[in-house]
Amino acid sequence: GTLERRLALDLLPRHETRRFGIDQQPGLREHxxxxxxxxxxxxGARWGLAAPMSSPDRVHGCMVLVDRLGGAEFSADDEQLLRxxxxxxxxxxxxxxxxxxxxxxxxxxxxxARERERSDAxxxxxxxxxxxxxxxxxxxxxxxxxxxxxxxxxxxxxACYWEAVPDGEILHVxxxxxxxxxxxxxxxDQAARRVLRPxxxx
Length: 202
Description:
Elements: H1 2-11, E1 18-21, H2 34-39, E2 47-54, E3 59-66, H3 76-135, H4 139-153, E4 158-164, E5 171-178, H5 185-192, E6 195-196
Antiparallel strand pairs: 1-2, 2-3, 4-5, 5-6
Helix pairs in contact: 3-4
């Protein structure tokens, strides 16, 4: 919260912990030192101890202890222990943020690698199609070679090319390709005879 951050920023320059007594007299917390404003959230509190949780790059907050069991004031040993614990927690925060940053970078690199792979695959397919068309003897062979090249590159099981009938509004299958043993000759023959009229869909 805001008070915790104010206190941590106040303590951090001297890398110190702070022991303090708590005045429970009512007052506006925004006008109090942050450690007192925090401690006054605990009804009846008398003694407080605070230490910053920080790492080399930032302040994460602070740890505040209020009243030892039995009501005695915090000792120098308590202060040293809290300083050590707060420093450890600060390192944990830093390690967690570094890990999250590394994970984000890894995900970005993986995404870039996938994009490059897709781009390279598209380029390879484009070159393969151009080569297949250059080797084709006629239009029909070129269409079939194109479908087969793209189908194998994309790992499709079936591909077809629909073409408009001259002087009409009907579409028919001008060429089709199927991976080995995926579709029977009967199904391929049925697909080859299909036509689409206005308003119909596949």
